[in-house]
Request: fold
Amino acid sequence: MAPAAHCWRHRPSEGGAGLIRITNVSKWYGNFPALKSISLNIEAGERVVICGPSGSGKSTLIRCINGLEEHQNGEIVVNGIELTSRSHGINEIRREVGMVFQQFNLFPHLTIRKNCTLALRNVRKMGSAEADAVADKFLARVRISDQADKFPGQLSGGQQQRAAIARALCMAPKAMLFDEPTSALDPEMVKEVLDVMTSLAREGMTMVVVTHEMGFARQVADRVIFMDHGQVVEDGPPDSFFSNPRHERARAFLDQVVH
Reply:
């Protein structure tokens, strides 16, 4: 990769408290340990890619950060707000953190613009005109202004995912979480979504991305976290992860996904 691709990469300061702080977090589904004592510190402006085999706990971890899954042990703090249970801190954290899912999760009966303005009006209590202006700004930002008055079913998968990104950006989040955002897309639509995500990274958005798109990880990530069996196995800069992974499981994973 050309060195210029790294010129905007975030350099975390030493000893920072972190925008997202995860300390000894564990989660079980019945008797199955989905997460085992995970501890991570993600600073404002960092772009972190989480990868690993299916069932390794990647999506569970990112959903715990947003309160979509409840962790049983440990502590999650986002922008100084502690999420201790589903009833405490969850709404505050969701105002601070945008989430983009695999399956878009757009309301099919609302236009794209109304999908984007719904939370602005109901949570931020904006008037319709102001909310429409914010929505139009971010629909332009993801290059689908011409789709604003259409319904999700009238858009391609790539356009729907970009609409979902715009919807999250409308709330002015301090961080964006992406849970395998391209996995439901046809190959020709993947690039248009990754291009939007890459431009967000260049602008300094804090991002935590669960993905198998290793080219994106090489280009965008400050850190690559590799998970296996509910644990963080490797956590380091992409150059060292891709050129010299320390763990045999990580090497086997890269052999499968890097071509």
